[in-house]
Design goal:
0% strand
Length: 450
């Protein structure tokens, strides 16, 4: 299962991106890219290899974690909606938000608070705020953009997050940090993580109108303002199924979210334990106060997992796509061909652009960087670029991939949490991601000059 490394390794990614734009169906687009890659690797065994890779991905510990965490997040969201707790939270915030601008700024601030994990951020913030933004006729696409811009970007910038733990481990594995010192190296690189800083700070500028609605986002905002927007997805799940509105208070929403954050932090940023305990706390709280029947609550848990199945299917297929690209040697090919162009001044910007394109094309914001770090960091050493600056460029590229890719896990989950179509979200937010990317190229070049 090998192919001669050439420019053709870019073909599966190109097919996937073009198909996603034309069809607006990410699962089918990923499948198209996967089978193009498999046919390039071994045409006669494409189907059996697809089956083998799919089985390997489904047995992967990371995918199991994603399924458990996202499935139970769906359960938690459904419980909060069916008892009316999400509506109580929305009513409380609606009384404080005076217009669409303040509604978006509250969403942004909430995203800054939920910094532990981008999955948690994307699902919790979107589902919390969509009724508030609906009230002020903000499009679901705009909500999803704000949510996505405070998912990976803020998790990257806060060292108490799953992203920081992951990268700290990679630095120690690659020998660039001694045991236990990976986090210190990560923290030293935070000032150089230009993309997440730019993406995060762009949001309030968009919210207050300094940066206008662009492209398809402008059309989405106009439709929402006129009340002619299509019915958001999963709208029926938002209505309370029990008549307890007079007894449900804001703490019925806040306490499960606090439990989610608190248990995750207590168990060394283990979001899986956090979401399990949050569902347990929610069931006990609602059951003890007889807000829902026990049978209704367990039905809600199952239904919540079902709601997440389309999103989880996309995430699984994105992992399969990443595996195929790894077998083709996409990341190594691109890095090796860009390496001769590296100079001390251009190194950070070229590293960002190269890895951002790979991350965008493959939908992998973590996996390709396990390959890239042992290549990029020695290269940075050889041309005289500081390691923290090189790490800043790499992590910026990773955040861009998570934020901008049409079928990345964070994009899918931000759309799911906000209640809008994945491709509508991806295509409306891409202009803002590109603005932040352009700022990043300039910023990294300036930093390299000093």
């Amino acid at each position: 299962m090998a192919t001669e490394t050439s420019l053709l390794v870019l073909l599966p990614a190109l097919v996937t991106v073009i198909t996603a734009i034309l069809s607006r169906r990410p699962i089918e687009s990923l499948l198209a890219g996967v089978f193009v890659g498999l046919l390039m690797l071994e045409p006669s065994a494409a189907l059996s290899n697809f089956s083998s890779i799919l089985l390997e991905v489904m047995m992967d510990e990371t995918i199991a974690w994603v399924i458990i965490v996202c499935g139970l997040m769906g359960s938690l969201i459904t419980l909060l909606m069916r008892v009316g707790a999400a509506s109580a939270f929305s009513r409380a915030l609606s009384s404080k938000a005076q217009n669409s601008t303040s509604a978006l700024l509250y969403t942004w601030l909430l995203g800054l608070v939920v910094f532990i994990d981008d999955y948690l951020n994307a699902l919790a913030v979107g589902s919390s705020m969509r009724k508030v933004t609906d009230k002020f006729k903000v499009s679901r696409e705009m909500l999803a953009y704000v949510v996505d811009s405070t998912a990976a970007p803020i998790c990257v910038l806060v060292p108490v997050s799953t992203w920081a733990v992951f990268y700290a481990g990679l630095f120690m594995d690659a020998g660039y940090a001694e045991s236990g010192q990976g986090m210190a190296l990560y923290i030293s690189a935070i000032p150089y993580m230009v993309y997440p800083i730019a993406a995060m700070l762009l949001v309030p500028l968009v919210a207050v109108g300094i940066v206008p609605a662009l492209g398809m986002m402008k059309s989405a905002q106009q439709r929402a303002a006129e009340g002619s927007a299509p019915l958001p997805i999963d709208e029926g799940e938002e209505e309370s199924l029990v008549d307890t509105e007079d007894r449900v208070r804001i703490y019925h929403f806040v306490l499960p979210i606090v439990a989610l954050l608190g248990f995750s932090i207590w168990y060394d940023l283990d979001v899986q334990i956090g979401v399990i305990m949050s569902v347990v706390v929610t069931i006990i709280l609602f059951g003890a106060q007889r807000l829902m029947a026990w049978t209704q609550m367990f039905d809600a848990v199952i239904d919540g997992i079902k709601i997440m199945l389309p999103a989880l299917t996309m995430v699984v297929m994105a992992f399969v796509f990443k595996e195929v690209n790894d077998m083709l040697g996409l990341a190594t090919y691109v890095i090796e061909n860009v390496a001769p162009l590296m100079t001390p001044l251009m190194f950070p910007a070229l590293t960002f652009l190269t890895m951002a394109l790979i991350s965008f094309a493959t939908g992998s914001s973590w996996g390709v960087f396990a390959i890239a770090i042992p290549i990029i960091l020695p290269l940075a050493d050889s041309v005289g670029v500081s390691i923290p600056l090189a790490i800043g460029a790499l992590v910026s590229a990773s955040a861009f991939g998570s934020h901008a890719c049409f079928y990345s896990d964070a994009t899918v989950l931000a759309a799911q949490g906000s209640g809008c179509d994945v491709m509508d979200h991806a295509l409306t937010q891409i202009p803002y991601a590109l603005i932040a990317a352009a700022i990043s190229c300039v910023g990294l070049t300036v930093l390299a000059a000093f």
